[in-house]
């Protein structure tokens, strides 16, 4: 008996959100999406019962914009377990170790059940160290709960239970949006988190918002210094002026929107209906920016491991990692593999740089290499596991009754044509997105949003706009729903 037969009773009984029967009106989809978004914001503001403020800061740090959630809240782990489970499944699927055919309805149920089991496991593996591995989420020494008095260990168990519930909630919130709303829940949560930080970066007075800082500059409350000596230039470009961060933010917006519109269009014609023509677009960012979540999640998990080892291993070897009092890596393996978060991590004018120039250059080189190569590899995995590869695309075109003019109506022939474009564009697009993410991090953005977070937010918003436009078109023309199989 194979693993599928052994695991089927468990995997098929995993709770799932019921799919809608028939067409869901666009207004109802918007209501579901807005409702889940409001619930997400509500849960990020629900502080863990028993949590003692004043810990060592957010463990996920700069990864928070990508992994969503909020430090010390019920959604502490964010979408991290979902992303990590997706990475594991993609690696297993890419190596063909699962033996699941996603075209088979039975195997689809098993795949979805396996993903849920992995997410539950990842919530446990992520939440336990956060609560019990000293200092990440400090618990109150005791807690009065009704007539009970809980000691610190019981408070920690209570906090873990809340984190576990939050991790499961965000899993099913994502499923509700995917089946009953517009877009995907993961994308929606990323947009929400990044947009919140962007707005804060522009208008927040307390943390040095862009508009507030320029008000202080124009009213003379900030001394700019001499432009000739370079001090004033540094103030305007990097510090209070935020000019480089503003330009980088606007450029990322422009480049991503432009890249989304760059495409190779393969002409199609209907095999039986004369005059019926179409085009299959192969976009420059064919795999979308979502594989970047997987790349950054790998880095986040490596840094998470380093933080745990630093806390639990009192005399960790220097070659493995050394940490500052704030818990940031300053040397060793975990320093070199840490991503560049902002200009303060590599510009020598920053007071944060205590390493030699060659150490900083090695760190930059590793980050660029990891993001470019990782972006290309995960883009390939993403395309193959989401039925966007040449073989799956050829079958979709064949099943729709379309063919490429000048070629025989055969799946193998169509697949060979697709192989000329899809693999190359996937690799180029994945590498380009990785390079853009590192560049944005190195120059900084408004609100301290990571380059990957900004890329994701812009790309997901653009795709959400396209999906909303498509939904509105199908709402106006019901015949199109039947044509595209959405009825």
- Give the terminus-to-terminus CA distance: 39 Å
Give the overall shape.
Answer: globular
Question: Secondary-structure element sequence?
Answer: HHHHHEEHHHHHEEHEEHHHEHHHH
> How many strand segments?
7
Question: Could you estimate the helical fraction of the residues in percent?
Answer: 55-70%
Helix vs. strand class: mainly alpha
Strand content: 5-15%
Q: Average pLDDT, to the nearest integer?
A: 83
Q: Cα-atom Rg, whole angstroms? A: 25 Å
What is the helix tally? 18
| Biggest sheet strand line-up | 4-3-7
Query: pLDDT under 50 segments (min length 5)?
Result: none
Q: Main beta sheet: strand number and arrangement?
A: 3 strands, antiparallel
Q: Topology, please?
A:
Layout: H1 3-11, H2 26-44, H3 64-67, H4 80-94, H5 105-132, E1 142-145, E2 148-151, H6 152-180, H7 185-203, H8 210-218, H9 231-237, H10 243-261, E3 263-270, E4 277-283, H11 291-312, E5 322-323, E6 329-331, H12 333-336, H13 357-385, H14 390-399, E7 402-403, H15 411-419, H16 422-443, H17 451-476, H18 478-483
Antiparallel strand pairs: 1-2, 3-4, 3-7, 5-6
Walkthrough of the structure:
The chain is mainly alpha-helical and 487 residues long. Helix content is 59%, strand content 6%. The radius of gyration is 25 Å and the shape is globular. The mean pLDDT is 83.
